[in-house]
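User: Before I run my own analysis I want an independent prediction to cross-check against. Here's the chain; please return only the structure tokens and, at the end, one sentence I can use as a sanity check.
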Amino acid sequence: MVISTAIPNFMKDGYLSSHYDEPGPPMNIHKFLVPALLLFAGTAGAEEALQYATANGAIDGYDPVAYFTDGAAKPGSPNITTEWNGATWRFTSLENRKAFTENPEKYAPQYGGFCALGMAHGGDVPTNPGAWTIWKDKLYLNMIKEVSITWRYNPDKLIDRADLKWAAMNAANADAED
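Assistant: Structure tokens:
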């Protein structure tokens, strides 16, 4: 199953959709963003999937391999696709599609493409393909650039929390399907 939802236009705005390459200044932005994230958060249930996708497919049609090879979020072609984990994945090249099909777990974003910080706080929050981080050779997507900044302050602790929430979400989904 796939959760399919449109990304609001404000999340595609230029200043929100660009990757942030330098750590931000120490600030308490999380005091504002965490409640905002939880406002958008849902809970896992039988009707929800474990792969976030829009009408354009997983990662809103962006090439998952390009994050690693080009260091950039790049829209994939609707003519170069593959199906994996219940979603359509787009690519910028046949080479990227081949790399993904040979090892999708290496390139697919963590937590089914849901917001990594949102997952750490227990929610299945949609993401913006331009708000991303690669940490320890894994791709993490977030809702907006500012969330990616917050994520980078303590990624290991947040990953530990998100891993637990993700496991619980998967278990709830598996139980619901039984």
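Sanity check: Residues 155-177 form the longest helix (23 residues).
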